[in-house]
Design goal:
By secondary structure, the protein is of the alpha+beta class. The protein folds into two domains: about 130 residues, Alpha-Beta Plaits (2-Layer Sandwich), CATH 3.30.70.120; about 90 residues, 2-Layer Sandwich (Alpha-Beta Plaits), CATH 3.30.70. It is built from eight helices and eleven strands. The strands form two sheets. The protein has a nine-stranded antiparallel sheet with strand order 10-5-9-6-2-3-1-4-11. A hairpin with a 2-residue loop joins strand 7 and strand 8. Helix 2 crosses helix 4 and helix 7 crosses helix 8. It starts with a helix and ends with a strand. About 25% of the residues are buried.
Length: about 230
């Protein structure tokens, strides 16, 4: 077999779930010997009126990033859906993003276990995910305090929801200093999963109102999503 044929196809697997389910995901990754995963805290984008009506505060979400071979993605999703409750609606979503490049040391780690993972895939009889769905992930990085207004415009343009992650911005000049204290601009990263035919309308609407030339200073771009699956059926 040629060296090219041995190169594993890697995917970035993204889970967006309730924060309380984070330990369950991590335990599954440990059981399946997943090498790389990262967890960050996000917020759901339900309106304040809806949250007040439900008698709850802000919706804490976990955004979990996992780097894994494509052949292992169905295995992980099967285990996650089983452990989180296959028949419970609204548990969360998961999707994959193709990689355009990766550094050699990490690639070498996956190449060493490619045959082992193929065997695991066959033994577990995991379902093959279809790549026919056409979806995109809209990523918007805006100044803090605009996420509620941003999502209102996005929903009017066709978005069904999104997740907000707090972040800090850095310029090429480094942090701004006031009275000798470094201050970094607080930013919000808003991720919206949408059907490909709705992407242009959503991006146009949010860019016009919250783009780079507005007070929100939004940097808005999209990434292709080649697989998407809910962690439970409605």
């Amino acid at each position: 077999m040629s060296e090219v044929a041995k190169i594993p196809v890697l995917k970035l697997l993204v889970f967006i779930i309730d924060w309380t389910k984070t330990k369950t995901i991590s335990s599954i990754f440990d059981e399946e010997n997943v090498r790389f995963h990262f967890i960050c805290k996000g917020m759901g984008t339900a309106s304040s009126d809806v949250l007040d009506l439900l008698g709850i505060g802000s919706i804490e979400k976990a955004v979990i990033l996992c780097l894994e071979q494509e052949v292992m993605v169905p295995v992980l999703l099967k285990e996650v859906r089983k452990k989180l409750g296959f028949h419970n609606p609204g548990v969360g979503i998961a999707f994959t993003i193709p990689l355009s490049g990766i550094n050699n040391p990490i690639l070498r780690v996956f190449k060493e276990s490619i045959h082992k993972n193929e065997k695991i895939f066959l033994e577990k009889d995991s379902p093959v995910m279809s790549s026919e769905t056409k979806n995109d992930l809209i990523v918007s990085i805006i100044n803090q305090g605009y996420s509620d207004e941003f999502m209102t415009i996005a929903r009017e343009a066709g978005a069904t929801g999104g997740t907000v992650i707090n972040a800090r911005g850095l310029t090429h000049q480094g942090p701004v200093k006031f009275f000798g204290v470094s201050v970094q601009d607080e930013r919000e990263i808003i991720i919206i999963l949408t059907k490909r035919d709705q992407k242009a309308a959503i991006m146009q609407a949010v860019s016009q109102n919250y783009g780079i030339t507005t007070k929100a200073g939004g940097l808005i771009f999209s990434l292709p999503v080649d697989h998407i699956i809910g962690l439970s059926f409605e």
